[in-house]
Structure formats: C-alpha cells, structure tokens
Design goal:
This protein is α/β, with parallel strands linked by helices. The chain has two domains: 1-90 and 237-325, Isopropylmalate Dehydrogenase, CATH 3.40.718; 94-230, Isopropylmalate Dehydrogenase (3-Layer(aba) Sandwich), CATH 3.40.718.10. It is built from eleven helices and twelve strands. The chain has helices at residues 13-27, 40-46, 52-59, 80-87, 134-150, 165-181, 190-199, 211-221, 262-274, 278-293, 307-324, and strands spanning 3-9, 32-35, 63-68, 92-99, 102-109, 119-122, 125-128, 154-159, 184-189, 206-209, 232-236, 241-245. Strands 2-1-3-12-11-4-5-10-8-9 form a ten-stranded mixed beta sheet, sandwiched between helices. A two-stranded antiparallel sheet has the order 6-7. α9 (262-274) runs antiparallel to α10 (278-293). The two termini are 22 Å apart. The structure holds adenosine-5'-triphosphate. Adenosine-5'-triphosphate (ATP) binds next to loops. Adenosine-5'-triphosphate is lined by residues 12, 16, 68, 70, 228-229, 247-253, 259-260, 263, 300.
C-alpha cells in the first residue's frame, strides 16, 4: 500500500496542506495517509522541533507532503528543514515554474553550498562555509541532465564563477557532464541569469545551480506565474522524496484563510507523479486551471476567495472528474 506522510508544519502549512491532503484522499482513497508533527508548534510543546522519531516516521513513507516550518527561537539553532534534507539526503530540489508560454525547471543543489550548516558566530564575526564537492555537483548536474533529456534538452548552468572558487568547480563539473551527455548547454552568471529569466523565460528549459542561488532564483522566477503561492517543489534523493510549496510558513497571513493553496496542491500533484500516478497530477492541474478560469482566486491573485473556498472549488472539480472516469 502507498504510504504518504503528511507534515503540515507551521503557519499557513496548517491551511494549505489540508487542502492538498483532501485532493490526495479524493483521488486515492486507498492510500495510507498519516500525520507527522514537526516544527515550531512541536518545539513549543516538547522543546524539540523534530526528533529522531519524526525522521523515522518520514523515512517510513513512500513520499512526504510537507507544509512549511517557522524558525523556532532556539539557542544554537539548527534549521529543521536542513536537518530533514540532510537526514533523508534529499539532494535535488526541483522547482518547476511554468505557464502558457514557458516551462522552466529549476534544479537546485539541496545539501551543500552556502547551506552547508558549517558556521561559526561570535559577537564580532560570523562565517558560513560554502561547500561544493565533486560528488555533490556531479549528482545534481546528472539529475538536471536526466530531466533535460525528458524535456527540451537545454541545460543552463547558473553560477558566480567570476568571484567564487567554489563555483569554478561547480561550473566546470557541470560543463564536463553536459558535454559528455550531448544535451545543449550554456552557462550564465547568476545575477544576469535572474534578470534574463524574467525577460526571456521561454528561452529556458532546465536551470541547474547551487543551493542558495536556486532558492533565490525560484522566488524571483515565481513572479512570472503570479507569486509564491503558486510554485511547488520536489526534494528528491536516492531513497526518499519530499514535496512542498516553495513558499514558507508566511506568519503574516497565517490563520486568516488568506493563503493560496495552489502551490500545495501542485506539490501533491508532483508527489502523485512520483508514486506512479502522472494522470493524478494532470487532474489536479486541470482542476486548478478550471477554478481560476471561473474567476475564483485567492487575494494574492487579485480575487476574494479564501483558502478554504478555493480549495473546496478545486475539490468539487476533482470530484466531478473522478466520477466521470
Ligand atoms: P518563512 O520564514 O517560513 O520562510 P516568510 O514569511 O519569511 O516565512 P514566505 O512564507 O515564503 O516567507 O512568504 C513570503 C511572503 O509571501 C509572505 O509573507 C506572504 O505574504 C506571501 N506568501 C507566501 N506564501 C503565500 C501563499 N501561499 N499565499 C499567499 N501569499 C503567500
């Protein structure tokens, strides 16, 4: 039986993930969905935002649907999200940004770079080590090449090799792998690339880059599709897979029924493809588009529907499709 761990996390995770969960339940009543509690709320109750038990529970699932986590004010804080990515070795973060005229897949290295977690801090000086390894660069570019082969076969390498030695290594490894693979490739400085993606989105297919650059680039690129409420992501490793919206817990709008659940629904869609139901992802996407076409939109898209109302509208369309099938 397919087992899915559901992690709402914090903030708007409690609002958008239930919508996505309902979509999964509707399309696959036979799946075993179980809740795993991690994050700020958990920290308040137990003093620990994510213990070994929760990591084990996530590892027990075929896939994880994840909301977002608010940073708890812990002494010697270590990011929970980074801990989960490392524990599950989710080395590739795939962030699709697409609309009618363009379809970009941002492939972000997810375990090293500036998010290596190797840090020191004193009152007058703080340092963070930016780590690029051959193993890390090779596996992320190979993942990007694999995706490019299934798509339009163009790879763009984003880096800052004119300044950073770590990116000279990253760029050179990416170029060597791309050359050997036969896909078309080009490379661009990440700052120029960020602007060009906004100006000429149709000229991009797969973009591969290091951790923080990919994080920023995907937020920037979300402007092309209407903002953070719309972009899903997959975190993939050799054994585990976790699906989450690109946005965070958005404390400013949490608990107000204002959050757009599209990114969470699309993340559930990517999860379905991962567990073997690509048609389910198409059904979720069609339902989202049908509801938007009816003029039902959340406030970030200029509408007045709440998270729940938008979610219910999507679920109604999904129900109709499921009945017709
Ligand atoms: P975190 O610290 O968890 O990353 P954050 O508020 O710093 O939270 P995001 O959650 O990524 O960062 O969101 C940035 C802003 O974008 C939010 O403050 C919110 O106004 C808006 N936003 C994010 N997600 C959504 C959404 N699903 N629907 C509507 N607006 C959103």
């Amino acid at each position: 039986m397919t087992r899915i761990a559901i992690v709402e996390g914090d903030g708007i995770g409690h609002e958008v993930i239930p919508v996505a969960r309902s979509a999964l339940e509707l399309l696959h009543p036979e799946y075993d969905l179980f809740t795993v509690d991690v994050g700020y709320g958990m920290w308040e109750r137990t003093g620990c935002p994510c213990a070994d038990k929760e990591i084990r529970e996530m590892k027990d699932a075929d896939a994880i649907l994840f909301g977002a986590i608010t940073t708890p004010p812990m002494k010697d804080y270590q990011s929970v999200v980074l801990r989960i990515r490392k524990a599950l070795d989710l080395y590739a973060n795939l962030r699709p940004v697409k609309d009618g005229g363009f379809d970009i897949m941002i492939v972000r290295e997810n375990t090293e770079g500036l998010y290596s977690g190797i840090e020191e801090s004193s009152p007058d000086r703080a340092t963070t080590l930016r780590v690029v390894t051959r193993t890390g660069a090779e596996r992320i570019v190979r993942m990007a090449i694999k995706l490019a082969r299934q798509r339009r076969k163009l790879l763009t390498i984003g880096h800052k090799a004119n300044v950073l030695k770590s990116d000279v290594l990253f760029r050179d490894i990416c170029i060597a792998e791309a050359k050997a693979s036969g896909v078309s490739y080009n490379d661009k400085f990440i700052d120029a690339l960020s602007l060009d993606v906004l100006q000429h989105p149709a000229s991009y297919d797969v973009v591969v880059t290091t951790n923080i650059f990919g994080d920023i680039l995907s937020d920037v690129a979300s402007y092309l599709v209407g903002g953070l409420g719309l972009v899903p992501s997959a975190n993939i490793g050799e054994r585990y897979a976790l699906f989450e919206p690109v946005h965070g817990s958005a404390p400013d709008i949490a608990g107000k029924n204002l959050a757009n659940p599209i990114a969470a629904l699309r993340s559930a869609g990517m999860l379905l493809t991962h567990v073997g139901d690509a048609e389910g992802e198409d059904q979720i996407e069609s339902a989202i588009r049908a509801v938007l076409a009816q003029g039902i939109k959340t406030r970030d898209l200029g509408g007045s529907a709440g998270t729940r109302e938008f979610g219910e509208a999507v679920l109604r369309v999904l129900e109709q499709t499921a009945r017709r099938a």
